[in-house]
UniProtKB/TrEMBL annotation, chain A:
<dbReference type="InterPro" id="IPR002586">
    <property type="entry name" value="CobQ/CobB/MinD/ParA_Nub-bd_dom"/>
</dbReference>
<dbReference type="GO" id="GO:0046872">
    <property type="term" value="F:metal ion binding"/>
</dbReference>
<keyword id="KW-0479">Metal-binding</keyword>
<keyword id="KW-0408">Iron</keyword>
<keyword id="KW-0411">Iron-sulfur</keyword>
<dbReference type="InterPro" id="IPR027417">
    <property type="entry name" value="P-loop_NTPase"/>
</dbReference>
<protein>
    <submittedName>
        <fullName>Cobyrinic acid a,c-diamide synthase</fullName>
    </submittedName>
</protein>
<dbReference type="Pfam" id="PF00037">
    <property type="entry name" value="Fer4"/>
</dbReference>
<dbReference type="GO" id="GO:0051536">
    <property type="term" value="F:iron-sulfur cluster binding"/>
</dbReference>
Automatic annotation (TrEMBL), chain B:
<dbReference type="InterPro" id="IPR017896">
    <property type="entry name" value="4Fe4S_Fe-S-bd"/>
</dbReference>
<dbReference type="Pfam" id="PF01656">
    <property type="entry name" value="CbiA"/>
</dbReference>
<keyword id="KW-0408">Iron</keyword>
<dbReference type="InterPro" id="IPR017900">
    <property type="entry name" value="4Fe4S_Fe_S_CS"/>
</dbReference>
<dbReference type="InterPro" id="IPR027417">
    <property type="entry name" value="P-loop_NTPase"/>
</dbReference>
<protein>
    <submittedName>
        <fullName>Cobyrinic acid a,c-diamide synthase</fullName>
    </submittedName>
</protein>
<feature type="domain" description="4Fe-4S ferredoxin-type">
    <location>
        <begin position="92"/>
        <end position="119"/>
    </location>
</feature>
<keyword id="KW-0479">Metal-binding</keyword>
<dbReference type="Pfam" id="PF00037">
    <property type="entry name" value="Fer4"/>
</dbReference>
Amino acid sequence: MKELTVISGKGGTGKTSILGSFATLSNKAVICDCDVDAANLHLLLKPDVQETHSFIGGVKANINLELCSKCGSCEELCRFSAIKERQVNPYACEGCGLCYGICPSGAITLNDHQSGHWYVSETQWGPMVHAKLGIAEGNSGLLVSAVRKRAREIATERDIPLIISDGPPGIGCPVISSLAGTDMALIVTEPTRSGLHDMERIIQVAATFGCQAAVCINKYDLDTENCFSIEAAASKLDVPVIGKIPYNQTLSQSLLQGTPVTLLGQNEGASAITKLWQQVTGLLGV
Amino acid sequence: MKISVASGKGGTGKTLVATSLALSLIKNNPSVQLLDCDVEEPNVHLFLDQEPINETTVSLPIPKINEDLCQHCGKCTEICRFNAITLLKDTILIFPDVCHSCSACWHFCPTGALEPSPREVGTVQISQSGKLKLITGRLNLGVHASPPVIKAVRGAIDTDTVTIIDGPPGSSCPVMAAVEETDYCILVTEPTPFGLNDLSLAVEMLKVLNVPCGVIINRDVPGNHLIDDYCQEKGLPILLRIPLDTEIARAYAKGIPLVKSSPVWTEKFIDLYQQVTQEVTK
């Protein structure tokens, strides 16, 4: 079984558009949305939800005011400033349990905290695992791990040789969870000064996971000079540029309509993504 | 006045709005601070020519073991809820990347064998271009925790100066650290089902944080009412519309802020600030 994760450093470069199109081209993949913080792939692939699971992201402290002796140690020692005037702010509490351990009167309990849901769905193009982190909730890395674990189980159960994942933006905790154990990171960038900067950072992050990395430049014809700089930077870091997608009206249309561009008939964007897909499957050997 | 700029999702034009707003405000203000709190991918500096003033590092305390005192009782591994400490046969392994710096391990170590030791997680850079001060936070590669770096950036401001905060994408902990306790949040979105989805998540988050907000529609196309309908339903003001325009995209690609590539926008951003001020004092 092989795993492909599409990442970008920054959001808005076209990860989801590309992955949504890949899903329509593959016919033999488990589809995964690892951008649990702002999941969007479902808007393109319109999955039919079969299973809904709660996600327990950890624990949160709770103070029983009847038992509390007002000693103040919990408030004083909490490194996340989560306790004020004997009240726990659940958004600040990281569930470390320090307060629970030090409370002399046993007034603090740690309770399981549901911080989101994850789903197993069917789409026209295969099974899909996706999630929704609750508003203002943390621990998205753990939720990404849960999504990927289930995707692997489905791939094994149904004998599907490939998992394709839409990754989250950034270089922090959910991205790290999305890259752990993947075979290939497809880095989507665009020919802007920000795009170049973000690509260089994310290539370095991907390199620490030992997976194969490749770059695709979206809207490559937006700025020739920046596009050239990106190709030069990628080549210097030893990462191949395996696709270039033009700045294309049909792609904007597909976003407005919420449909993968590959389903909008013959067009420049669709044929560039189809070529990119051939490169990806070639490199992955599936 | 502290104004944050957020979007739910990256790539919608937060940085475009934050830089142009700050550059417009220096016309009428003695000084303006712009904070780049997208510490995972800070980009504001690419749009401004500034002179660096100083750089400080952001550190978090992580446990360090004194082997001489450790009796391998395993209390620390038991207490750590993040699996950052593992007890092997006769040694202890500490994984800095998963440590949350909660201090429980050294607090409960019965022999005092664990003590806090600083680990660098990022940097805060301050630079100046004319009346505009830029404070940039940068998370070190391979570090997962951006909120402490964001808090360090916010801790470096002069509280009396107009402050614009360019936030990270999403609607979880890093964004909350960037927008909490600001006077107003400008949400930048685009008129697609994706934009609407992310916008509604961000609006819910701001409700939790009790920060008032308004909306800027970027890449606006005539005849599309998706965002307008949502804003009307939620009673949110639409503060500004920036049209879908290849020329704007090209200038942005070259790293030229909108108000520099087409100066007619300066007045619009000054008006935007006035609208925000009115909303705040309402």
